[in-house]
Amino acid sequence: MLGRYKELSGMTVRVVRILSLALAALLAGALLTVRSVPWTDRFIRLFGAVAEARTHTFNASDLDTTCDPCQDFFQFATGGWIKRHPIRPSYASWGQFNALQDKNQRVLRAILEDAAHARNAPPGSNEQKIGAFYASCMDSKQIEADGIKPIEPELGRISGIQNLEQLQDEVARLHSLGVRALFAFESSQDDKDSSQMIGSAHQGGLGLPDRDYYLDQDDRSKQIRDQYVQHVAKMFQLSGDASDVAGSQARGVLAVETQLAQVSKSRVELRDPLGNYHKMNLAELRTPEFSWEEYFRAIGFADISEVNVGQPEFFRALSRELTSVPIADWRTYLRWHLIRSSAPALSSQFVDEDFNFYGTVLTGAIENQPRWKRCVVSADSNLGEALGQKYVERALPPEAKIRAKALVDNLVAALRSDLQTLPWMGDQTRREALAKLAAITLKIGYPDQWRDYSAFQVDRGPYVENLQRGSGFEFRRELAQIGKPVDRTQWEMSPPTVNAYYDTNMNEIVFPAGILQPPFFDAKADDALNYGGIGAVIGHEMTHGFDDEGSQYDAQGNLRDWWTPEDRKNFEERAACVQRQFDGFVVAPGIHENGKLVLGESIADLGGVTIAHMAFQRALAERPAPAKIDGFTPEQRFFLSWARVWATIARPEFERQQTHTDPHPLPRFRTNAVVMNLPEFAKSFSCQAGNAMVRPAEQRCRIW
Ligand SMILES: [Zn+2]
Fold first, then answer.
1. For residue 462, how far is its CA from the centre of ligand 1 (angstroms)?
2. Exposed / middle / buried, residue 169 (Cβ in 10 Å: 0-12, 13-18, 19+)
3. For residue 270, how far is its CA from the centre of ligand 1 (angstroms)?
4. Ligand 1 centre from 657 Cα, in Å?
5. Looking at residue 19, what is its pLDDT?
6. How far is the CA of 6 from the centre of ligand 1 (A)?
7. Which helix (H) or strand (E) holds 586?
8. Distance between Cα 132 and ligand 1 center (Å)
């Protein structure tokens, strides 16, 4: 489900923005928000304690020096690394994000194995939970012996559905087990009163990654639909259906989901906050076919009285479909979604067939991840803060947290001085923008207050049941917040996550311990590498408060227009420049980046590097510039570091999926698009007018 939280990379889930998508899409785990720290005004020197700059973590063989940096900077800066690091068979893409994640996962594995072997952990303790969870997931012998048995009781309930009321009850039940059938329901901050949590209902219920997969008429899309029907049929056969029955049932599933897709909004439409805000009370929610009161009762929250219905047209159409589609077809649809969401935790026939479609067909990955890795990812999704607590003891020394915090302060100071002098913005808007920047809060490393898992019972198997209880725990934890004031201590990512996010309603930036590691951040490296790496990431997240979506929210995280019409117009003209630039990038023959879909992330990249570069200049002014290192000036190393974190190569199937579904541009374009707009880059590598990495002055995009 699309939210208002933006990540650095990855699937956007719930109300925040992330840095990049490749990882989250692959690992598709549940998503999981430190006390607000007021910004200081001082400009703090980050690495003053390091006596001299060192070449730590920088490797000149990562470059492709046969390529001219002024023609293709991404290739120049990452070509050597990519050549030495081909995509692993079990991945859809491989890059610096994956390599760091892989490293973090090995730390988690050691923690989990220790916990799984320690049979003497106090019952109900976090250690007992992570150990038992991991052990149940690794117990392939029991999982094979059980086959489909662990979900048979639920399949039995579905086959007993005879009328609309029973159908509705089962949908509520499946939601509490983590099966997102028909639509999604969760809690979120009220966009117009960000101090309060309300219920939030969104379009959903599809088995393919996006509505376009059902509606597009090109050959490849048709082929994917055919393969999807075959996949659903195989899963039904594995569950005991005869092949002809399974085939016709699978076609029925596609027909039902296509109807849902036809009334779903596009990803671009979902990026419009006002267009997706429709707060309703119970009387307004009421439809003849679907009783929300009954749904709230069934999920255990009978007192919910107000809900933001993100896409009312979707819900109106869904109500009609509830009666126009025969009950038997709904039973098949629910059965499919239960099997689909349980498959990765069942016996190998189910795991393999699930991977065959969602891994190989959709992303091009050749083989599944080893079981231990899948179990680490699952433990992180389900018990992220219990596991994360152990992780940070091993991976984030307190001084790293202090240094990262100082770097953030320097970035804020740079953005503040930029906002104070920005030529295209009038004073009234400028005051609001500065107030918004001053109100941004920071979470870094790990939560000050760890999540309480006491209501989540974990034992040594069956694994599927641990997953169902985990989903139930998370569902109730989320919904219990509805109608209450916002709890500002929560994190939306677990500490080992290699990612970062900006939360629009909280107006906060968050950097988990997992990304405060080389090559993003290294306390032993020179300033250039750190400002170009984690500095640009920090700038990226801050800029989300001022991108095309974020700029519609004020300092308190409320959807409120604080712009004068003239400044808004100036901003939109500048944003349109970025949109045009991305529309021009060709992913594969016939496939372009979608400038409108990736606009927020592209503005954040451009703003992030610009602000990080300003902060780096201030750092250089504080003390003499170090000499060249590995033959590169500090300026050059700043840009090399920016490119390096995006060193990634992806399979064509996966790039296609990302272009359709990910608000983040592909790494090669995000790297080059930024430097093409910055005269500072051209100067540092002595690039000339007419070079591919130098846009003519009149085409250059600059917002912040
Ligand atoms: Zn982002």
1. 38
2. middle
3. 16
4. 18
5. 59
6. 5
7. strand 586-588
8. 35
E strand map for 457-575: 501-503, 508-512
pLDDT for 56 equals: 59
Q: Cα–Cα distance between 279 and 285 in angstroms, integer? A: 9
97 occurs within a structural domain: no
Q: How far is the centre of ligand 1, averaged over its atoms, from the C-alpha of 501 (Å)? A: 7
CATH code of the domain containing 558: 3.40.390.10
Give me ligand 1 centre to Cα 56, in Å: 27
CA of 566 to the centre of ligand 1 (A): 26
Contact 20, 100 (CB under 8 A): no
Residue 205 covered by a domain: no
Ligand 1 centre and the CA of 534: distance in Å?
13
pLDDT tens digits, 215-233 = 999 999 999 999 999 999 9
Residue at which a domain ends, from 45, 74, 91: 91
Residue 68 located in a structural domain: yes
Ligand 1 midpoint to CA 499 (Å): 10
Distance 387 CA to ligand 1 centre (A): 26
Q: Which domain holds residue 515?
A: 396-451+490-699
| Rounded Cα gap, residues 626 and 633, in angstroms | 8
Span from the CA of 70 to the centroid of ligand 1 (angstroms): 26
pLDDT at 399: 85
pTM of the model: 0.92
DSSP conformational letter for 446: S
Write out the two tokens for 258: 């296509």
Give the tokens for residue 145: 């012996």
Per-residue model confidence (pLDDT) at position 20: 52
Residue 66 CB neighbour total at 10 angstroms:
9
Distance CA 604, CA 411 (A): 14
Report, as ranges of residue numbers, the positions in the chain whose pLDDT lies below 70: 1-5, 10-56, 624-625
Ligand 1 centroid to Cα of residue 29, in Å, is: 19
Q: What is the pLDDT of residue 10?
A: 62
Give the model's pLDDT for residue 18: 57
The DSSP line for 493-518 is S-TT-S--EEETTTTEEEEEGGGSST
Residue type, 465: E
Q: How remote is the CA of residue 540 from the centroid of ligand 1, in Å?
A: 6
Question: Residue 20 C-alpha to ligand 1 middle, in angstroms?
Answer: 7
Instruction: Determine the distance separating the centroid of ligand 1 and the alpha carbon of 122, expressed in angstroms.
Output: 41
CB 540 within 8 A of CB 607: yes
Helical spans, DSSP H, in 239-305: 243-262, 267-270, 282-285, 292-298
- Considering the domain boundaries, does residue 522 fall inside one? yes
User: What spacing in Å lies between the alpha carbon of 494 and ligand 1's midpoint?
Assistant: 17
Q: What would the DSSP string read from start to end of 377-403?
A: HHHHHHHHHHHHHHHHHHH--HHHHHH
Cα-trace Rg, the chain? 25
Domains identified in the chain, total number: 2
Cα 538 to middle of ligand 1, angstroms:
10
- Helix ranges (DSSP H) in 239-366: 243-262, 267-270, 282-285, 292-298, 312-324, 327-342, 348-354, 362-363
Nearest to 289 by CA among 313, 324, 262, 264: 324
Looking at 91, 123, 150, the residue that finishes a domain is: 91
CA of 537 relative to ligand 1 center, distance in Å:
9
